[in-house]
Amino acid sequence: MKLTTRLLSIMVLLSISIFWSCEQNLDDNFAETELSEATFFKTPGDFKLFANNYYDFLPAHGTWSRDDWSDLTTSVNGNSISRGDYTTSFTSAVWDDSYTLIRRTSTLIEKIENADLDLKAEILQYKGESHFFRAMAYFNLLRQFGGVPLIDAPLSIDSDALQAPRNSREEIVNSIISDLKIAASDLTSFEAMVAEDEGRVTKGAANAYLSRVALFEGTWQKYHGGNGANNLLQEAVSAANLVLSEGYELFDRRDVLGDDNYKYLFTLDKKQSNPANITKSGNKEFILVARRDVDELPHNSRPDPVNGLNPTKTLADMYLCTDGLPIDKSTLFQAKGQIDSEYDHRDPRMLMSRPLTVYYNSQQAAWTRNWADLNDPTRGTLNLAEIPGRTATGYITLKFMLENETPNGTDYPVIRLAEVLLNFAEATFELNGAISDSDLDKSINKLRDRVGLPHLTAAFVATNGLDMLEEIRRERTVELFAEGFRYDDLRRWKTAETVLPEALLGIKYGGTEWETHANWSALTPSLNAEGYIITDPASNRNFEADKHYLFPLPLRQLQLNNQLEQNPGW
Length: 570
Prior knowledge:
This protein is mainly alpha-helical.
């Protein structure tokens, strides 16, 4: 049976009942005598069963809300992290969940190390999965808190390590890289994965994640005055190259989906979810996903325009014109006098990532695109952009928005090939201070080909007075929009202190068709001098460089372990 989240809940209960009985009562359905360690870890199936519970920790639908922490999107009510007015909390789900996962993975690693020799070869995959997920847990801690206590074995209630001080960033990163390299050596390649194990972590996923971690920390060290940046950036380049040598492919079905190709990538299902009826099986871009299934574990998850992900002017202005130039340099840009004029001659991802003035009602129980009539103008039930009732900015996110009846079984991409291409390009430039056209062709230009944009080349940059690093970062931002990367990117680039205190703006309302159109003429929004809606004024926003680059450790952990030191400024 293929791995699904429904199975995972059973596995979690099993693992807890075996190994955490000191903290929770055993479920009555599982007799302690039947599920003891002495009787359980005897077959490959036992190890697989235990490893299955890791997959519940994959980020699922909803992580797009991390972009609300940044400058790209906001909500009607704003966001405390983006504003910098959040406070120290007593507990932290990131801390608790990460150390829960670390304990589970370390437990299985120990069991595998002590397993019979004739069994070890058959359970190598689960050893690799354990190292991968432990690395993922520590990276979640690192990007949130910096250095944390490094624990690589299951602890008892009286272990001295429970009172251990924080390890350094370098020690945590070295541990993550070591775990990912072990994982890559032990895991199966996705091409060799048998059908019943589809969805499990692969060799490519370990190397792809390594490219993410090494790029994050390499640029963090470079821009925050640390050490070892070049070694880390080289790790990112090398790991990305290993992924590019495998059989992953960008999803490109423009032959039947046209300019909607990119949008439908994120709504593929095993039932019809696009005009060409391409299903999840036709996608080789997603390297690791949080799996859902329309029959076994459906969902009805999509961005909610009220609760967040309202794109800002910052994002709208990032999309290039079809000549490959930014809007302030392109003669193709049609300005913003009309409601839809800013979308003309722009990167198709601009429209695929959000619509003009209408959107699907995310609160609706079910809606259906009329697949039989591809010219049906209604495309299901559409709604006007209600400002500020439904959108703070006047923009609505379309990416991840479903168009077919519930229930749905779309997967959420944890790692996809597009990110690896972007990791490779950025790490290459940061390492060398330049990037060759051939390296651009093997990375960023593949993404530009998919949306029909001109190639990025050294000559193009020089001729048009562009900045190569800025263009690489632009490509990353628009391609990975709504996938939760922007806040971490701003922090590792050390630009958050400049970007995040700025006001968040929406559409240009004053002096445009918006202001005179019957649907929106009665609005009285707060505008800046240029006529843009101010959704969050600069007076509401704050980012302290000596404080906000790291989150505060939860107070409960400081109480439990007096060796822990709070992050600066908190």
